[in-house]
Give the backbone structure.
Amino acid sequence: MSSQIAVIWTMRGRRRFRDRQNWIEQESCSHEIALAWGARILDATRHLSDFPDSGRVVPEINRVNIREVIVDGEYRVIYKVSRASCDILSVRRVRERITSLRSL
């Protein structure tokens, strides 16, 4: 039996999620589309409590504990793995360049 770790959304992660969801709602003119997008993002993070290393290492950062899951082929959910938790750091478009952890 494997032990689970906590999945924690950081303040920055929550802000990036809300900002992106609001942008999707404005661009699509649909609250339902934005909610469905948000549900897919949240669904993609649910398994992290059991499988925190399942995402790939973020290529620009190249640190084994900074990982990402790709959602809809267009969005990156970037997170940091530690012994006790999986901290969601940011939600970004795949095309957005990351230059450092601070730029998340």
